[in-house]
């Protein structure tokens, strides 16, 4: 009975850890240890078990873990508890190398996940509902997996011929990332604007690693523009400098200089103003745009307009 309770508690912990990785993006061993009233070593053992089956890596903060970028559990028809039970039930097969290989294949097929080949990527937090049962989404996922060209038809009936590569989530909204065959350029479309997906008879070849690298290093917002790359240089105050030193807030971040007072000059390579807009505005007033002059002036104009509206609103009330 005691052994049964131990397994039950382990399953419960694993289920919660997996669910939080999927929803929150990160877990902390110290917090989990306190919550479950077990040692940090026990939590680390739980995470090692999950790492055998999922791409989980150490986070930027000590004692934190997260899924590797690009991995999602949204495709699986199993919920997190069912996944954990499946993994546990196949554990005894590891005694035989042959059975272990069969068990691994069962897991891959059932979870329908292989890191680096998932058609869905989350960049940012918060997730809009993605209905796997809708006809449009089924056809889109099928086209991505089978490398089929599609015609995306919007609510006005306009049609775009696309090579669909990935479905990406930016700040809670789902988008289709692919190549516009008329413009011959990579582009991004909001899924909510696409009414229908129709398969064509054409197929395409995809360099999976090249696309993953492009998304990782260049696609920072839904406004990504292929071939339109420029550098933004900012200066951050000593008050927030350690956040940028801790980890790159955008993949292309590069620290150019660190001043004696603790301030830093940082470069970001982007393809559109919107790639960097939210980051800059989130850290005001402790961040200053130095280059390019065009973007600096645009930001100043927006802030002045905002302050004027605030002043006018205050006088009106």
Question: Describe it for me?
Answer:
The chain is an alpha+beta fold and 317 residues long. The protein folds into 3 domains: 2-111, Winged helix-like DNA-binding domain superfamily/Winged helix DNA-binding domain (Arc Repressor Mutant, subunit A, Orthogonal Bundle), CATH 1.10.10.10; 120-217, SH3 type barrels; 230-316, Alpha-Beta Plaits (2-Layer Sandwich). Helix content is 41%, strand content 27%. The strands form 3 sheets. Strands 4, 5, 6, 7 and 8 form a 5-stranded mixed β-sheet that branches. Strands 10-11-9-12 form a 4-stranded antiparallel β-sheet. A hairpin with a 4-residue loop joins strand 5 and strand 6 (159-180). Helix 2 crosses helix 3 (40-51). 20% of the residues are buried. Residues 112-116 have low confidence and may be disordered.
Short description:
This protein has 317 residues and is an alpha+beta fold. Helices cover 41% and strands 27% of the residues.
List keywords for this structure.
single chain, 12 strands, Arc Repressor Mutant, subunit A, 10 helices, globular, 317 residues, Alpha-Beta Plaits, alpha+beta, SH3 type barrels
């Amino acid at each position: 009975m005691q052994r049964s309770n131990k397994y039950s508690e382990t399953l419960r912990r694993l289920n919660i850890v997996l669910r939080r990785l999927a929803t929150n993006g990160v877990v902390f061993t110290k917090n989990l240890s306190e919550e479950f009233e077990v040692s940090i070593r026990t939590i680390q053992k739980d995470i090692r078990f999950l790492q055998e089956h999922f791409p989980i890596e150490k986070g930027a903060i000590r004692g934190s873990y997260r899924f590797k970028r690009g991995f999602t559990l949204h495709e699986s028809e199993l919920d997190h508890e069912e996944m954990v039970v499946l993994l546990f039930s196949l554990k005894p097969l590891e005694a035989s190398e042959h059975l272990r290989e069969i068990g691994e294949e069962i897991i891959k097929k059932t979870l329908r996940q292989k890191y680096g080949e998932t058609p869905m990527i989350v960049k940012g937090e918060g997730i809009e509902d993605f209905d796997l049962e809708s006809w449009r989404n089924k056809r889109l996922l099928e086209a991505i997996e089978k490398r089929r060209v599609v015609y995306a038809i919007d609510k006005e009936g306009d049609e775009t011929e696309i090579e669909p590569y990935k479905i990406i989530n930016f700040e809670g909204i789902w988008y289709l990332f692919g190549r516009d065959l008329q413009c011959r350029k990579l582009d991004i479309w909001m899924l909510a604007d696409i009414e229908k997906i129709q398969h064509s008879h054409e197929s395409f070849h995809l360099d999976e690693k090249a696309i993953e690298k492009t998304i990782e290093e260049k696609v920072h917002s839904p406004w990504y523009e292929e071939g339109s790359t420029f550098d933004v240089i900012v200066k951050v105050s000593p008050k927030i400098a350690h956040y940028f030193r801790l980890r790159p807030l955008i993949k292309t971040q590069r620290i150019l200089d660190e001043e004696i007072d603790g301030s830093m000059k940082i470069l970001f390579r982007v393809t559109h103003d919107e790639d960097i807009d939210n980051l800059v505005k989130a850290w005001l007033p402790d961040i200053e745009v130095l280059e390019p002059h065009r973007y600096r002036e645009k930001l100043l104009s927006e802030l002045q307009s905002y302050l004027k509206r605030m002043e006018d609103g205050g006088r009106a009330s």
